[in-house]
Specification:
single chain, alpha/beta, Malonyl-Coenzyme A Acyl Carrier Protein, domain 2, Alpha-Beta Plaits, 2 domains, five-stranded parallel sheet, four-stranded antiparallel sheet, 13 helices, globular, Malonyl CoA-acyl carrier protein transacylase, Malonyl_transacylase_ACP-bd, [acyl-carrier-protein] S-malonyltransferase activity
Length: about 325
């Protein structure tokens, strides 16, 4: 594929891709990454590098800290990539999963890094304070998941794949849902997720109402590239108030990741580049693997021609994607 044929989208993962030590490899070698972390510290009033790299007080998995930790890492990875690449891949669009949508808006210059930090810090605080319940990933489609969720007073929280639907509810309600699913669909799974609440469901309505006040405080500009909305599954309009309203509704509506991916393909995207985060049992950044790679490759496996995918989540993968040996 020639450079002129490439239609690139930058993507950013959400919660669940944080880990102790995140970003430490970047800051060890790049002053530009250190400046990103210093900027975050100045805005938020605590040492972002110490929290991310050492997590001495076991706070990195608390939502109020997880979200700014990930946003900072996303932007640090993007900054180092742009520094290393002789000719950085130029995106025509950006998207992110849940929290990652804010990083996409920063990449599109619709939000400043500082305002995005303030928003996600408050967003995480409100979600942790006012939210309740838990989440589970079901290996079934929406048509199968919806009646089960409704019956057990759970909400649909995310459409990750056509056969992976996330639900949220109280612990007891999720237990009841999982028990019925095991009986009715014995070959399917209900995998509990480690979260502080039933995010993206009706349990987040109070958090969203408070968060609207925070959205009103920030300036949002027309994106310089197209940005996908988790709420609609389509591209944001350029109007600032419409973007704010969709970020508001995102808090208590399902993350339509399937819709976002399909919209990207319909727009002719043929190269996905993932920035930041990391999953897996390995301890250090070098041992982590990308959060969204599996979902993207599974969703696009029948697409012809098949889109390409590149990770930029740690120093090694950033160097490779930047074309640096």
């Amino acid at each position: 594929m020639s450079d002129t044929d490439q239609r690139v989208i930058y993507i950013f993962p959400g919660q669940g891709s944080q880990y102790s030590g995140i970003g430490s490899d970047l800051c060890a070698e790049f002053e530009s990454a250190c400046r990103v972390y210093e900027q975050a510290s100045d805005v938020l009033g605590y040492d972002m590098a110490r929290l991310s790299h050492e997590d001495p007080d076991n706070q990195i998995n608390l939502t109020r800290f997880t979200q700014p930790v990930l946003l900072t890492h996303h932007i640090a990875c993007l900054t180092v990539y742009r520094e290393l690449a002789e000719t950085p891949l130029q995106p025509v669009a950006a998207t992110g999963h849940s929290l990652g949508e804010y990083s996409a808006l920063v990449a599109a210059e619709a939000l400043s890094f500082e305002d995005a930090l303030r928003l996600v810090s408050k967003r995480g605080e409100l979600m942790g304070t006012h939210g309740e319940g838990e989440m589970a990933a079901l290996t079934v489609d929406l048509e199968t998941a919806q009646p089960l969720a409704d019956k057990h007073f759970c909400g649909i929280a995310g459409l990750n794949l056509t056969d992976q639907t996330v639900v949220g509810g109280t612990s007891a309600d999720l237990d009841a849902l999982a028990a019925e699913m095991a009986e009715v669909h014995p070959k399917k799974k209900a995998v509990r997720l480690k979260t502080e609440g039933a995010f993206h469901t009706y349990y987040m309505v109070t958090a969203a109402r408070h968060f609207r006040e925070e959205l009103d405080k920030v300036q949002i500009n027309a994106p310089q590239i197209k940005v996908l909305s988790n709420y609609t599954g389509g591209f944001h309009e350029a109007d600032a108030e419409t973007i704010k309203s969709r970020l508001f509704f995102q808090l208590f509506h399902p993350v339509n990741w399937v819709g976002c991916l399909q919209s990207a393909l319909d727009d002719g995207i043929n190269l996905f580049v993932e920035f930041g985060g990391g999953i897996g049992s390995g301890e250090g950044p070098a041992e982590k693997r990308p959060n969204l790679e599996g979902i993207i490759k599974k969703f696009t496996r029948r697409t012809k021609p098949k889109p390409e995918y590149l990770p930029a989540i740690n120093l090694e993968s950033i160097r490779t994607t930047a074309g640096v040996e």
